[in-house]
Specification:
This protein is mostly helical and 120 residues long. 83% of the residues lie in helices and 0% in strands. It has one domain (2-118). It has five helices and no strands.
Length: 120
């Protein structure tokens, strides 16, 4: 368990640092381009890691923890959201996919709005 925690922590720290550096490198004025790109890159990376894990039984679970949970989780939490939605689509659970995708966006925005307005 400690080894898994360390793998996720190391990957998460690297992902967070990369996200920060990326946001410094890609400056935006009115459109949050850096965040959009980070979310897309993180989603792409987690898709690749999951594909490798699914297709290769010998793919070490430690790499999945380090790269998918840690690196992508630190780089962007949107990658986990993308991976979970992809899994629902692959399982043919389109109703749950739609409910989860739309619900997450609406509830997430609603929660952010509520949190912001509670402290006004």
């Amino acid at each position: 368990m400690l080894k898994n925690l360390l793998l996720v922590s190391f990957g998460g720290a690297a992902g967070s640092a990369l996200r920060f550096l990326f946001s410094v490198w890609v400056k935006h004025n009115s459109f949050p381009l850096a965040t959009l790109l980070v979310n897309c890159i993180g989603s792409f990376i987690i898709g690749v890691v999951i594909a490798i894990a699914v297709r290769n039984a010998s793919f070490d679970a430690n790499w999945k923890l380090l790269l998918a949970t840690g690196l992508c989780g630190g780089f962007t939490t949107f990658s986990a959201f993308s991976a979970e939605n992809l899994q629902l689509i692959q399982q043919g659970r389109m109703g749950l996919f739609a409910m989860y995708a739309v619900g997450s966006v609406l509830l997430g925005l609603g929660a952010a709005w509520l949190g912001f307005n509670l402290l006004k």
